Amino acid sequence: MPKVTFDEDLCKGCGLCVNACPKQIIEIKKDIINKKGHSPAGITDQSKCIACAFCATMCPDCVITVEK
Amino acid sequence: MVVFEKPHALCDVPLHYCPGCTHGIVHRLVAQAIDELGIEGDAIGVAPVGCAVMAYDYFSCDMVEAAHGRAPAVATGIKRALPDNIVFTYQGDGDLASIGMAETVHAATRNENITIIFINNAIYGMTGGQMAPTSLPGQVTQTSPYGRDVATAGFPIKVSELLAALDGPAYIQRVAVNNVKNVKQAQKAIKKAFENQIQGKGFSLIEVVSSCPTNWGMTPQQALDWVEEKMIPYYPLGVYKDKTSEEGEK
Q1: Is A65 close to B4, i.e. CB distance below 8 A?
Q2: How does pLDDT run across B168-216, given as a tens digit for each residue?
Q3: Out of A12, A20, A60, whose CB is closest to B22?
C-alpha cells in the first residue's frame, strides 16, 4: 500500500508537487499555516497513490517521504 | 519499502531558499550521488558566494567556503593536497560565469580532477535580481528594466559551449531541473561527474538550468514553465564534451 508522508513544518507551499502528481491527489492546505508561515501541501486521497515519487522528485525541500 | 526519502548526505535542517527554488532539488541530487557512491566520508565540497553560500550548513560532508568565484582554485588546491578525497564545487552563475570565469576556465584547461556543479538561473539571486552574464537577451531584471540590450550589455555567456571548446576538460553536460524527466537526467549526470573524478578521468562540469521564481517575479510553476519556454531553447541540453567514453573524444 503506497504511503506518502509530508513533513509539514519543512514545507514552503511552493506547489511543485501539486503539478507533478499524475493522479492529482496533492493540494495546498490553505486552512493550515505551519511554523514557517506557509500553507503546506498534503495528500487528499491516499488510496489513489501509485508511489511514483514524482512529488518527492520535484520537491526542493525534501518534505516528502514515499513508501510502498 | 521506502521509495524515496531525504538522502543521508543532506543535513536534517530546513533550507533557507525561497519557496520553489530549484537549488533545493540540486542539493538533493548532489547528496543522492554522494550517498549512492558511498563517499560521504571522503567528499569535500567548496561552497560559493551567492544564494548557495550556506551550502556548508546543508551537506554533511566536509565543506569549505571560498572567496567569491574562487571555488575552482580552492578545489584545485584541496584536490592536489588530498588526491584521495572527492572534491566538488557548487556554484551559481554570478560566481562561476562572472567573477570566477578566469578560475573556471583555467581549472578546466588544466583538466583538474574535480567536479563542478554550476547553477544557471540567468540572474543574480542573492543580491536581489540584477542582470547576470547568463541573463537572456530582452530579459527584464533590476539592472535591465527595459530588457537586456545586447548592444550595450552583450550576449549571454554559454558556459558549457565555451568550456567544451577547450582541449582540457573531460566531461561537460548541461541539464535542467524543470520537470521530473529532466531531474532524473540531472541526477544521472551529477552521479557521472562524481564517478569521473573517482576514476581519475579529470574535470567534469554539470551546468544545471535552474529557476529563480522570486527575482523573475513568477510563481514557482510559472518559473519552471519559463525555463522550458525561454531558457532551454537558448541553452540547449545535452553532453557537450565527453572524453570519458570508450570511443574517445566526442
Answers
A1: yes
A2: 999 999 999 999 999 999 999 999 999 999 999 999 999 999 999 999 9
A3: A60
Nearest-CA distance from A21 to chain B in Å? Answer: 10
Q: Report whether pLDDT(A1) > 90.
A: no
The architecture in CATH of the region B23-242 reads: 3-Layer(aba) Sandwich (3.40)
Cβ contact, residue pair B17, A60, below 8 Å = yes
- Inter-chain residue contact B19 with A53, CB threshold 8 Å: no
Interchain CB distance below 8 Å, B19 and A62: no
CB contacts of B223 in chain A (<8 Å) are none
Distance to chain A for B59, nearest Cα, Å: 13
ipTM of the complex: 0.95
Q: Which CATH number fits domain A3-67: 3.30.70.20, 3.90.1140.10, 3.30.365.10, 3.40.50.920?
A: 3.30.70.20
Instruction: Judge whether B1 and B200 are in contact, CB under 8 Å.
Output: no
Spatial CB neighbours of B49, under 8 Å, sequence gap ≥ 6: B66, B67, B68, B69, B94, B95, B126
Note whether A54 and A22 are within 8 A (CB): yes
pLDDT at B245: 79
| Per-residue pLDDT, B247 | 54
Q: Given the C-alpha cell 529532466, which residue does it identify?
A: B182
pLDDT at B48: 95
Tell me if residue B181 falls in helix, strand or coil.
Answer: helix
